[in-house]
Amino acid sequence: MTTISPSLLACDFLNIESELGHFSNFKNIWFHLDIMDSHFVPNLTFGHPIVEKISKKTKIKLDAHFMVSNPEFFINTFKDFEIHNFTFHLEATTDPLSLIKKAKEYYPSVGISIKPNTECSLITDEILREIDLILIMSVEPGFGGQSFIEDTYSKIKYFKKLKDSSHPNLVIQVDGGVNKENSHKLIKAGANNLVAGSYIFKDGPSSYSAKIESLRS
Ligand code: DX5
Ligand code: ZN
Fold it and tell me: Which residues participate in catalysis according to the annotation?
C-alpha cells in the first residue's frame, strides 16, 4: 500500500497538537517534516524544540526532510527525537556515503533527495545500496503550494527500474505539488510514498481522511 506523508508545513501551526490528533487513526502514513535553514533554500521553518515536541505527541512515524546546507550537524542534533526517516539533499554534500553511514547509526531509515534539475545518475549504485529511500523533488524545494513538474515521471521510472533490478526495498518518495490529479500516475510510474501538504490540509480536518484515500485510489 502506498504510504502517504502529510507535510506539516501546510498544517495550522497555531494548533499543531490537534492537527496531529486528526491523523491518529489513519494507517500507513508518515508525518513529513520540512526543515529549512534559510541557506540551502530561501525559507526558514522549524527546528529542534518543535520537532522534539511533535515527537512526544504522536506515534505516527516522523519523516524529516532536511533542506539544509550542513546535514551532518542535523544528523547529530536530531538523533534523540525518534525520527523514523532522515532525508538530506545530495546537493548539500560532497560525501554522501559517509553521511549515510553516520545517519544510519541513529535513524531506522535514511533517505537522499534530489532537486528537479539534478541528474538521476548522480545517485550511484553504491549510494542506492546504502539508502532506504530516494526522495524525488517535484518542485524546487523551499515552499509549499507550488505546481508539480511533469518531468518527475521519467525520474520515478528511472529509479523504479533500478529498484526492480537490484534494490527491491527502495522507497520511492515524491514531494511537491502532489494531488489527486497526479497521484495515480505517480503510483503507476513506481512511487510508493507520496508527500502532500496543501492538497491534504487546505480544506480542514473533516476532509483529511478522504484526501488521503483519494491519493491512494
Ligand atoms: C517543499 C517541501 C514540501 C512541501 C510540499 O520544499 O519539501 O514537502 O511541503 O507541499 P505541497 O504538497 O503543498 O507542494
Ligand atoms: Zn518536503
Answer: 34, 175
Q: Which of 91, 146, 180, 214 to mutate to test the pocket of ligand 1 (most atoms within 8 A of CB)?
A: 146
User: How high is the pLDDT of residue 196?
Assistant: 99
Encode burial over 98-131: b for 16+ CB neighbours within 10 A, e otherwise: ebbebbbeebebbbbbbbeebeeeebeeeebebb
Looking at the structure of the chain, the number of domains it has is 1
9 in contact with ligand 1, CB cutoff 6 A: yes
What is the CATH classification number for the domain harbouring 20? 3.20.20.70
Give the domain range for residue 38.
3-216
Exposure string for 198-209, b = 16+ CB within 10 A, e = fewer = ebbbeeeeeebe
208 CA to centre of ligand 1 in angstroms: 16
Residue ranges with CB less than 5 Å from ion ligand 2: 34, 65, 175
pLDDT in tens, 28-71: 999 999 999 999 999 999 999 999 999 999 999 999 999 999 99
- Residue 126 Cα to ligand 1 midpoint, Å, equals 28
Mean pLDDT across 112-140:
98
pLDDT band, very low/low/confident/very high, at 217 (cuts 50, 70, 90):
confident
